[in-house]
Amino acid sequence: MRVAPSMELEVFDGRRKATLPMRALLNAVPGSFLLVAPPAIALLFWLLPFNRQNADALTIMFGCIAALLLMMIANLCDARPRPIHLLTCIYLIFYFLLPGYFHVAYGQYPFFQAGYSPAQVLNAAIVVAVFICCFFLGYSVQIAIGDCARRAVPHRLMLATLLCGVTALVCAAAVGFGTFLQTIREANALQAAGSVSPTPFKLVFGALARSSSFFGFLFGVFLYRIEKSAGNLFAALFGAGVFFLLNSPLAVTRFILGSYIISTFLVLTKFSRVQKFIIAAALISAQAGLFSYISYLSRGDLSASFTWSPLEEFTKSGDFDGFQSTINVVAMHDELGGKGGVNIASALFFFVPRPLWPEKSGGTGGEAALFFGYPMYNISSPLPSEFYIDFGIPGVIVFSLLFGLLIRMGDDRFAFYKERSDYLGQIMMATVASYIFIILRGSLVGTLGPFMVSIALAFVCHRLVCVPAPAATFSGVAARDG
């Protein structure tokens, strides 16, 4: 006997019909994974190295890893998309905490053969644990979505595609096209030599050029899918051409390149359970191989052959310096005191020129690096340390709760837009998801500006291109009037 599927199964798994045994199988999969999770985590604990000198810190860190693993598995087994939460868990486990666990266990840190007292390591572990607990509590709060279904108007979408492409070209010309054609290696060499220095103008217009070119590319894809015509094809090709002109794979950072791939995957797929497993497996495996190879191409010594050594990359690479940076920031705060909101304000008001605000932070990670006497200041500062530097543990509690709440709102809105085939709404929320790795890594002073520019542009396009859809409109049909 055939049973009509529930709306949730139809929307997120893309199945119009499902037999009762198939539905039972789908419902049994999540429970099976959750049953396997505890023994798998116990096995992981037995396999991981241990250091008695930092036993307390390592125990706390493993507890955080185990909690995040359970959250990630629950997400993968959930029929709802929840991409931002999934990416947050993946980053915190595999790009932040697990490498940090090895650093602490072996007593070897990525930068400058640094060493830390057990008390310094323990304080950093406590800050991370508070962050994860409060993030989970904030994410558990659900706020109703006060919005209606919206549909893209084709001629408005075509205009937005063309305007995004033109905006990208104008902003690129203002900054200088050479900036977008330089490889990461060349840009780093010029910055190290003092030939160029980042300014709020370059930050804003550079971010606007890249984000508008990417939105123009995605808008063009959806435009041609909605209505195939010669004009729409031209607009789509124009958007794609501008995007590829300004985004050479060797000229953008790995995180930006990854954000493009993630956004495209999220908006062009149903993002069902299977697709969530695919993106999780890709990101976890990329961390052990592709990530290091791109680093070799963009910043390494090309005269030497590439050697793939996952464990060495995992434990010694400066790309995974997050927990060491957290130790630095926490230790600096505990010795010098809090910044009283200066660093958070510097990130929020990134567009204010430094001459007008001499106290503006140059980046939390960089400040901690200078405090410890590092010869370089381009150092990350993960989100827990950003929340700690200004107000200590109270700041971590408040900002982590707020962060979890915002992530939940983003995931709920993505599901809302996905269910109603609101393409531009999906792009807006996919942009949040695609930036989450960069935001979690920090420093916020350098990352929040491009993120806010991209989100503002996506929001404006969504509001101008889309109109409220009648309640009876079928979810796959775009609005044609207006």
Your description of this structure?
It is a single chain. The chain is mostly helical and about 475 residues long. The chain has one domain (about 50-480). It contains 20 helices and four strands. It has helices at about 5-15, 20-45, 55-75, 85-105, 120-140, 155-175, 175-180, 185-190, 200-225, 230-245, 255-270, 275-290, 290-300, 310-315, 320-335, 340-350, 365-370, 385-420, 425-440, 445-465; strands at about 1-5, 20, 150, 465-470. Helix 19 (about 425-440) packs antiparallel against helix 20. Residues about 1-20, about 20-30 and about 470-480 have low confidence and may be disordered.
Question: Briefly, what is this?
Answer:
The chain has 482 residues and is mainly alpha-helical. It is 71% helix and 2% strand.
Protein topology:
Blueprint: E1 2-3, H1 7-13, E2 18-19, H2 20-47, H3 55-77, H4 83-106, H5 118-139, E3 150-152, H6 154-175, H7 177-181, H8 184-192, H9 200-226, H10 230-246, H11 254-268, H12 273-288, H13 290-299, H14 310-316, H15 322-336, H16 342-348, H17 364-371, H18 383-419, H19 423-441, H20 444-465, E4 466-468
Antiparallel strand pairs: 1-2, 3-4
